[in-house]
Amino acid sequence: MNKHLKNLNRIEFVVTMACTGRCKHCSQGEHKNSDAIDKDLAATAVRRISEEYNIESVMTFGGEPLLCCETVCEIHKAAKEMNIPQRQLITNGFFSRDYNKIKSVAEKIIECGVNEILLSVDSFHQETIPLEHVKSFVKAVNVPNVKLQVHPAWLVSPDSENPFNNKTREILADFNKMGIETSEGNVIFPSGNALKYLGEYFDLSTETKSPYWEDPTDIRAICFSANGDILGSNICKRDIIEILDTYEP
């Protein structure tokens, strides 16, 4: 086992860069790239890594991952097969306007083993994403064996008073009335669209460490890009265990 990965316990997948939102807070920018990870390679990676490491959590996100529902399902099926306890999905809840399709996708992700859904709902997402379709999705996935929470993005901090946070609080209150709890969410990082459209809210004189930063000598979580990139290599070109075994900071 690679000494730099001895504490590896989490696998994340950017399922696709395609997105249904056009959020001004997005650290990824305009999402012009529509890459999507190969579902079979991704599922195989989950199985192979779990045989070598004590993986406790698998997460799928995007872009909007449910634009590639089959890929999400294959990844979480593999995680369930490998007895990985936490199987998370982050979604904005908007991938279709057709209620029958929304219901079908909800049933599929529950059946495949997703047991925690973090719903990206806030003032930024709701500038372009209609709440009526998000609420249809919520009703379809709000079942006893799935932990469902709204997962907002906060500008500056959760306690900061600004027009964006105030609107977010109004939206969250609406979901709370439906019985959906609010997670801690995340604080917006100044990069991509956030820096372009919200720069006035950031203190750019102070260096800010990305919340997704990993110590390269003691990696706890690895994240696959939508094109298959991982740890300076790519699962489309090399075996995942070989990539892990030969990784150097």
Description:
With 249 residues, the chain is an alpha/beta fold. It is 33% helix and 16% strand. It has seven helices and eleven strands. A seven-stranded parallel sheet has the order 7-5-4-3-2-1-9, with helices on one face. A two-stranded parallel sheet has the order 6-8. The protein has a two-stranded antiparallel sheet with strand order 10-11. A hairpin with a 2-residue loop joins strand 10 and strand 11. Helix 2 (69-81) runs parallel beside helix 3 and helix 3 (99-112) packs across helix 4 (131-141).
Question: SSE order, as H and E?
Answer: EHEHEHEHEEHEEHEEEH
Indicate the mean pLDDT: 94
Silhouette? globular
How much helicity do the residues have? 25-40%
Strand arrangement, major sheet: 7-5-4-3-2-1-9
| Sheet with most strands | 7 strands, parallel
Name the structural class. alpha/beta
Number of helices: 7
Roughly how many Å is the radius of gyration?
Answer: 18 Å
Low-confidence stretches: none
**Approximate strand percentage:** 15-25%
Distance between the termini: 15 Å
E-strand count: 11
Secondary-structure map with pairings?
Layout: E1 10-16, H1 39-52, E2 57-62, H2 69-81, E3 86-91, H3 99-112, E4 116-119, H4 131-141, E5 147-150, E6 153-154, H5 163-177, E7 181-182, E8 186-187, H6 192-198, E9 221-224, E10 229-230, E11 233-234, H7 240-246
Parallel strand pairs: 1-2, 1-9, 2-3, 3-4, 4-5, 5-7, 6-8
Antiparallel strand pairs: 10-11
Helix pairs in contact: 1-2, 2-3, 3-4
